[in-house]
Amino acid sequence: MLGPAGTGKTMMAKALPGILPPMTTEQAIEVTRIYSSAGELDAKEGLVSVRPVRSPHHTASAPAIVGGGVVPRAGEISLAHHGVLFLDELPEFSRPVLETMRQPLEDHVVTIARAHGSVRFPASFMLVAAMNPTPRGDIAPGEVGQREMDRYLSRLSGPLLDRVDLHVEAPAVPWKELSTAKTGTSTAQMREQVLKARDFSRPRQGEKPNARLSGRELDVMMVLDDPARTLLEQAMVQLGLSARAYDKIRRVSRTIADIEGAQSVRAEHIAEAVQYRLLDRRL
Questions:
Q1: Average pLDDT of the residues in 237-243
Q2: Are residues 60 and 150 in the same domain?
Q3: Are residues 131 and 169 both part of a single domain?
Q4: Domain of 46: which CATH number?
Q5: Tell me: the pLDDT tens digits for 63-93?
């Protein structure tokens, strides 16, 4: 999420777990084992039944994020297994620290190697990040502001941003919207939409979510008609998107179609998925 300070980015990130499906028993056991190995399990609580949410500070080290130590210990990405890892003020994190997450984001596991052996920790987490357009929190009008924003964005590598499914703008909220009665969709309503979309996709692909579908599975499960294929081809060529972004657009558009209850992915679903690649247009 990219937008000026005070637009609700952190609030939305903290509300996100409330719309996710509940963990299965197997997932709860996995998370509990990780917390137990890290010494963070609440003995009174027992089994961890709520999806974890981790939000490390931007001064955190690489071992704190991905795991490490003389005796390998799970890091924040593993403690966020089956949950959410929220990185606020993303460009303020050390670039080497951010780069260590590239492999776990792809493989959903992290391997900590030491002279006496190696340990594999699961790390299937949802990465949510927020950033201001510039270090001062807002953006000046005109070319000066654009250059300042580009310099700030340059702290993030293209390969890392390429691994993030959605790049969305969080613009400043106008006074009229702040002062009027709220009419948006509630968390409970969003959760119902998510559960219905999961139920809709289950006959097609079982329990595997769209985010875990391989390119080959996408070829089978979302055959595009001519308008949708043409639109996707234009986006790939004109925006210079990577093969990884190609599959991410297909997964997101498949999810948009599932939320609508549509069996086929149409051009409008592709168009909405493409518009969520905001930062690809600036790299």
A1: 88
A2: yes
A3: yes
A4: 3.40.50.300
A5: 999 998 888 889 999 999 999 999 999 999 9
Per-residue pLDDT at 77:
96
127 and 234 belong to one structural domain: no
Domain of 210, in residue numbers:
187-281
Contacts of 105-108 with CB under 8 Å at 24 or more apart are 105/163, 106/163
Residues of the chain with pLDDT > 70, as a percent, come to 98
For residue 224, being part of any structural domain is answered with yes
Residue 275 lies in a domain: yes
Q: Is residue 173 a part of any domain in this protein?
A: yes
State residue 282's pLDDT score.
55
> Span 250-273, mean pLDDT?
95
Dihedral sign from CA coordinates of 256, 49, 75, 128: positive
Whole-prediction pTM:
0.89
Q: Count of domains in the chain?
A: 2
